Automatic annotation (TrEMBL), chains A, B:
Residues 21-201 form the Ferritin-like domain. Signal peptide: none annotated. CDD domains: Ferritin_like. It comes from Flexivirga alba. Pfam families: MiaE_2. SUPFAM superfamilies: Ferritin-like. This is Ferritin-like fold-containing protein. InterPro entries: Ferritin-like, Ferritin-like_SF, Ferritin_actino.
Amino acid sequence: MTDDARDRPVRVEQDLAEPGYRRGVIALLGVLAYGELVGFLTIAQEAGFASSSQDKVTLAKVATQEFAHYERLATRIEELGADPHQTMAPFTRAVDDWHRRATPADWVEALMKVYAGNSIANDFYREVSELVDPETRRLTREALEDAGQVEFAAGELRRAIAADDKVAGRLALFGRRLIGEALSQAQRVAAENDDLMGLLVDTGSGYGLDLRDWMHMFTRLTDAHTARMEALGLSA
Amino acid sequence: MTDDARDRPVRVEQDLAEPGYRRGVIALLGVLAYGELVGFLTIAQEAGFASSSQDKVTLAKVATQEFAHYERLATRIEELGADPHQTMAPFTRAVDDWHRRATPADWVEALMKVYAGNSIANDFYREVSELVDPETRRLTREALEDAGQVEFAAGELRRAIAADDKVAGRLALFGRRLIGEALSQAQRVAAENDDLMGLLVDTGSGYGLDLRDWMHMFTRLTDAHTARMEALGLSA
């Protein structure tokens, strides 16, 4: 829970009977679901850069976990009476764009995307999960489960940075692109989608963050990213 | 069971105590395991060509199933006292080469690879599974499970061929590359690996196919491929 939001009202399961809140939750599950689906595809693609079968297996495990999350989210969307594919449709462009603009050029960049990119997404969803009812929160948090991939990536990145001076500068640059594109796409998604915006930002409902808290959240995401980059000895 | 091999002795579980047979089974599980691992990675990559989220999900399901097979094969290799990664190592080049040479250029070629490529591999493993003990056979057959992807791919291919005259010629060409590369890599793998060759081809053990049956098997694989291409109205 953030300081800013501690005294705000919290959503409960009964709120799902409110059409606006329900649409907002379905939209949130939709963007999460498409993120997990494309996360699966891109991590599996990035595993193509791995030269050893051990590393391929490690990334394949991460990818299949993302797909399991997708399946649980899709099931929940159906339980709420919506079609998963229709629900994901408004978000495909922004998520695809983020992956296209943050495409790693090699194995260390792929590791950086796991280490920093996944972490930005996880921080975002952890913040958002504070704003929703307990069942939706549980499912959102489940989608954040980490099978140890961030730690794995951090270890590999430390080794790669220690082994080659030139790697640090390139990774610092790629890290900046990851956070920049992530914040830009997240804000675009929310701004373009009234259902999602209505869930996350209080525009009269009495729930969600006010606009100041919403901007503070992005500052926290940026701070956490900076700390992660510095933990590898990289300038953020 | 093939006609040629019907009267040949069949392997039993106790044979796993024989070092030569055991090494052969471990090698077979190794090439199967690496095939499933890379199958996972490439199907996930090919799903990138899918334009709809529905098709992405369909291919993601196929891919995760391949990875589940990989995990079961790796577990069995460990049960037999070997390291999965060391066991896969002699086969990585041939399997990687097959995928590199049979890389689909677009969505219809990706579908063709699922339809024809997976089927060639499945036919091969089904033949080979006749030569091994029941537990190894069970595991090999499990790795051949089809979640409906061949039927899915066939349906999509029929639609694509009907919609565009030029597609048929290109797919016929790609199909020929798939079978040619598959047979070439399969023969190379067996020829280069004494343990696997010892398991599959009888060179004095009294088990396995004799050389004539071995060649007949490749003829059957080619015939089955031809029939599959003709089922789509394509020249093989």
